[in-house]
Specification:
Layout: H1 2-39, H2 43-58, H3 61-75, H4 80-86, H5 91-120, H6 124-132, H7 137-167, H8 179-190, H9 194-220
Length: about 230
């Protein structure tokens, strides 16, 4: 029993880490793009982006996961089973993709507001000084603005990323067997409670490592003081 439960928990751990990594890699650059769109001088795009961010931040992630899973069948009349058959994969993999899409969209909206706040906090005088030195707008952003923005947004970004680790448990809504669902299934099957403590220890260890990592990065960037 112990070996079987441990193997199931490790599989759930793997899916949790994969969901975390995919979301982080895709949501950070997408969030930066959304931040630029929310600051653009093109008013229709600016307000469309603001409405998008407002809707995503104002509704539960669980609801967004469910809605996205219904889009193929509702809007395009394509059953999810047909998608799985077309790509020669399982429904579990299709549901995992739906979960990834929902997480990426949700966290991109949150990250965009953090990026926007960081970029707008940089004094305009630094932009003007860079222009006097002959820098292009791209050089100004990447060499002058972005390093300072990164330092300023690190604390709120670290909070969101740690929240992401815990939010991965919502993947169970579509039956994705992440570590919490794997632990819950083991509890129901073997009538033991220790798998839940294993899952809790995983989250504590994962978030502890991330906390130490962000503290280390913050100390390394302490020379960016403005």
């Amino acid at each position: 029993m112990f070996a079987a439960v441990t193997a199931d928990l490790l599989n759930g751990f793997g899916l949790t880490v994969l969901l975390f990594a995919v979301t982080l890699v895709a949501a950070i650059p997408l969030g930066l793009v959304v931040a630029f769109c929310s600051m653009t001088r093109f008013i229709p795009l600016k307000w469309l982006t603001k409405v998008f961010v407002w809707v995503i931040r104002g509704t539960p992630l669980m609801l967004q996961i469910i809605v996205i899973s219904f889009i193929p069948n509702t809007l395009f009349e394509i059953p999810n089973r047909a998608i799985a058959d077309f790509f020669g994969t399982s429904m579990a993999n299709v549901n995992f993709i739906f979960v990834c899409v929902a997480f990426i969209i949700n966290y991109a909206a949150y990250f965009s507001e953090i990026f926007r706040g960081g970029i707008e906090s940089i004094p305009k005088g630094q932009h003007e000084a860079a222009q006097v030195l002959g820098m292009t707008r791209g050089q100004t952003f990447f060499l002058v603005v972005l390093p300072q923005v990164f330092k300023r947004i690190l604390p709120p970004m670290s909070n969101e990323i740690i929240t992401l680790v815990k939010d991965t448990s919502l993947a169970r809504v579509l039956g994705v067997v992440e570590i919490i669902l794997a632990a819950n299934q083991a509890v129901n099957l073997y009538v033991v409670i220790w798998p839940l403590f294993y899952a809790g220890a995983f989250y504590l260890a994962f978030n502890g490592i991330l906390t130490l990592l962000f503290s280390f990065i913050e100390k390394k960037l302490s020379y960016y003081k403005v």
